[in-house]
Specification:
Blueprint lengths: L6 H41 L4 H7 L1 H29 L8 E8 L2 E6 L8 E4 L1 E5 L4 E7 L4 E4 L7 E3 L5 E5 L5 E7 L11 E7 L1 H12 L8 H12 L2 H4 L23 E2 L4 E2 L2 H14 L12 H11 L4
Parallel strand pairs: 1-5, 4-10
Antiparallel strand pairs: 1-2, 2-3, 5-8, 6-7, 6-9, 9-10, 11-12
Length: 312
């Protein structure tokens, strides 16, 4: 939040600093209004105790002044918030890219929408966007209420079951920006992370073209064994790997899993050791996850992991 990297985030950060400045000024003003009269009244009482009527009349002035200042501050804060919300509600120019995001317990399904279904892309937990171009977001939930929040790029927007909320993000520089589900959605709410990577436009185009491709056919014997084990096991009931018989839609699409930085919605790094542990005992690493413990022999698990790490 303190290092905005997009148009909307910059406006929200400016509002935040402005409200912090107002709050700091209020603290100072209240301290002055309270402490100086107390000190003055203490001195007055010690010299000549006032009558009850005079004391009551003298106290009205500061109260009226303080109430007026408070009202003006609240009006200014409200007006600034409304103006900022309206400014951050829509980008300054029309988005050319639309991404549909579906919140699940506890991961993010990401669809790059295209009028041509063959050009659509489905991935999970990581979003790539082109630098300097606004991206339209269609936000949905598959189960409970979630909240989409990339602090350096945009404010929070809820994902509500049965409803599509619209938002947008834009990055003014290349980099990777962390996000988080910002509304409690169950046991693993804190482990529902999201990464947004802003690429130069040409690099983004190349990334999107690669994501459209199906998984390649392995030539290495161990990798080929892993592919056969994945497709022939219960993995294929929940996950999709385009170019294979695995067409499950319960869990994330794994077609290009090896290009992602994390697994399990940011709970673990995308490493060989983490994949081995996740396949062996996902509920032990992320309690409550719907992925069951896989009772596979070590050889099969190693082969599947070898295959998954080739999915670029």
């Amino acid at each position: 939040m303190l290092s905005p990297a997009g148009e909307a985030a910059q406006r929200l950060a400016l509002l935040g600093w402005w409200l912090i400045g107002i709050a700091g000024a209020v603290v100072v003003i209240v301290a002055i209004v309270v402490l100086i009269p107390l000190a003055w009244r203490r001195q007055t009482i010690e010299e000549t105790p006032p009558t009850g009527s005079a004391e009551h009349d003298e106290g009205k002035g500061p109260i009226i002044v303080l109430a007026t200042i408070s009202l003006l501050i609240l009006v200014a804060a409200f007006a600034g918030t409304v103006v900022t919300m309206r400014a951050a509600d829509a980008p300054s120019h029309t988005p050319t890219l639309t991404v549909r995001i579906v919140g699940h317990q506890w991961w993010w399904e990401v669809h790059y929408v295209s009028s041509d279904p063959s050009q659509s892309v489905i991935t999970a937990n990581e979003i790539h966007i082109p630098v300097g171009q606004p991206v339209r977001l269609l936000l949905q939930s598959a189960d409970v209420v979630h909240s989409f929040w990339i602090p350096q790029l945009q404010g929070k927007v809820d994902l509500i079951p049965g409803q599509t909320n619209v938002s947008w993000i834009e990055a003014d520089r290349a980099g990777t920006f962390g996000g988080q589900c910002a509304k409690y959605c169950g046991m693993q709410h804190a482990q529902m992370h999201l990464l947004v990577t802003a690429d130069p436009p040409h690099a983004f185009t190349s990334w999107l073209d690669r994501q459209r491709q199906p998984a390649t056919t392995p030539t290495d014997s161990l990798v080929a064994e892993g592919r056969a084990s994945f497709v022939g096991n219960t993995c294929a009931f929940c996950h999709t790997i385009r170019g294979t018989q695995a067409v499950g839609r319960v869990g994330p699409d794994l077609t290009h899993l090896a290009t992602r930085q994390t697994i399990a919605a940011g709970a673990l790094p995308n490493t060989q050791a983490a994949l081995l542990g996740w396949i062996a005992d996902a509920p032990g690493l992320k309690p409550g996850t719907p992925m069951p413990r896989m009772n596979m022999d070590p050889r099969m698990t190693s082969a599947i992991v070898a295959y998954l790490r080739t999915l670029n």
